[in-house]
């Protein structure tokens, strides 16, 4: 069902942290999970999916996909040049998924940064891309190659970024640069903006699997342990420091994957989802404490989950606080969503706030992964197709249409 423009009805949930339950019925049941594989049924075929960042005032409602031929296609918002259409292209949103110019042989994506088969890191859009003033945020309408050693992982935030180097066999390091306003680049001072990338003093441990950067930096190692630093509570561990710029291990073990959106994080471990971060309601608007969600707490889902994606809370133009939400893909390939649903982004065919995880209706096949923006959700299916639902205010459904919204999944037209 596709309906009109996104004139969303104000919605606010109860004061509780909806969908989080320390006594989840599956707390004690550890399930070994693996990601459902993508097997390209036809071309074009996507093999991974990410969200994009916008510039100031841009909601960043957009997505990029890594295609099986090693290229990248993006669609949606574009005020920050995040579609990568080229230096002469207008920074206007697009509902048509098109290839980012100049990229080939790409093997990994994180937002609008990519790693190619040789380990080179390429970035486009708006972010800390090591350009004129090394640690500054710039806008690049076409991909630029960052002056870094060969990387195996990259994590980029709106003002800070990190890369893991040295290969999967260990012996490498994590290099970080950009703004250190929340201590997300480590010691010595949270007020110091770093220039050239410098190594972070991580405790010894397994090689780095992935890096995510927001107001904190979260490093996931191959053995499922996490090392975190930066803003507290997004670091997801008990600390007396606010922020805590010192890389330390978090208590959550056996982590399969994690996602960080500014100051809100989610992870999966043993088939259970965990979320933590900023208070449900800003302190100036509620009665909570800054640490009410300071450590990972399990969420309730109907079955074990594999992948998870989340968003951060923000103030809408109408003065309503839009809370964070999350979606997850399960071991059976079903997608579940919780939270705001005024644009149909929870995918259950309604616009009713999802206080409990609801099943997404209308997906044609099993989902291998899922990604969320505040108002839209997209799922990568095991066939390599991508389906999206929710708002289409910046063309983020990727189906060639503009405006409106869809309460059911629609297929992205990949190039």
TrEMBL record:
SUPFAM superfamilies listed in its UniProt record: RCC1/BLIP-II (SSF50985)
Classification via Pfam families: RCC1, RCC1_2
InterPro entries: Ran_GTPase-activating (IPR051553), RCC1/BLIP-II (IPR009091), Reg_chr_condens (IPR000408)
Highest taxon, organism lineage: Bacteria
GO molecular function: guanyl-nucleotide exchange factor activity
PROSITE patterns: RCC1_3 (PS50012)
Annotated segments matching region Disordered: 1-23, 180-207
Gene Ontology cellular component annotations, sorted alphabetically: cytoplasm
Full protein name: BNR repeat domain protein
Classification lineage: Bacteria, Pseudomonadati, Myxococcota, Polyangia, Polyangiales
